[in-house]
Amino acid sequence: SNSFCTLLAPVRRRVMLNRGLFRRTLVRLAAPAASAKQSGGSMQSGKKHKLAHFPHVSLTTPASHVVLEDRAGAVFPHRLESLKAAARDLACQSICAQKIQWDARVIVCRDSPIDTEFKVFINPDVPGYDVKDAVTPMYGMWETDTALSAATAWVVRPQQVAVHHVDEYGQSQTTVLEGMTARLFLHEYDFLHGRSMLQMVPSTDFITSSISLNQQHLWPDAFPSMEARMTPPNMFFDYVSNQIVLPKGLEWVAELHKMNMEFANNPQVRS
Hints:
Layout: H1 9-18, H2 20-25, H3 27-39, E1 41-44, E2 47-50, H4 57-60, H5 75-89, E3 94-96, E4 106-109, E5 119-125, E6 138-144, E7 151-158, E8 160-166, E9 172-178, H6 179-192, E10 207-209, H7 210-213, H8 226-230, E11 236-238, E12 243-245, H9 251-264, H10 267-270
Helix pairs in contact: 1-3, 1-9
């Protein structure tokens, strides 16, 4: 969970490129993401979406509050559709406005990279999010982000959050998010405040590369922590149960792995 423009591009790429038959079933995801990474943007109906890369000023500066009256004009709806289009093109589950160089406190999220419906969060606020000594159930996870290239970071986040926001129709809402959806949202929410996952780690020991993350068996014991060392990519460490768990909202990734293993073990597919 196009890493954490979503966090999960490395998984999708490995799965999609492993088997020809499997790749054909997911070509809608693979092709746009691949072309976008090569060009630094993406194409939708002939239009290129340029993705900002850290430390682009738009990703290191707090985003501007949206004047709600502007929603009625022509510019805001157009930019919101451009943000959704960028997410679709990059197969993102979540993306914030700053990543397409739009200075606005806007985030869109969806449940999986192939869902067509997005949840829209305008001027979101998460009360208590910055309280360091808050007592709340937490998950740890290795996060990545297309905007930060090959970097990956161990970030501990609340298992559930309540978000106060305005939806795309101008209605004030309080939306409760949990599991992977909560993490995706908070990952983008940090950018609204001019910070990235790199500022959310306990220390620089918890920042590595996606290649190194696939070589965890070669790391020193309990480095950078016992929880981070034992948690594979795209899984959560539950600090309540002290167990590795499949995040709610990532069941589709488990299905991809299952299908990939079935294809890999099928001689007819390999031939």
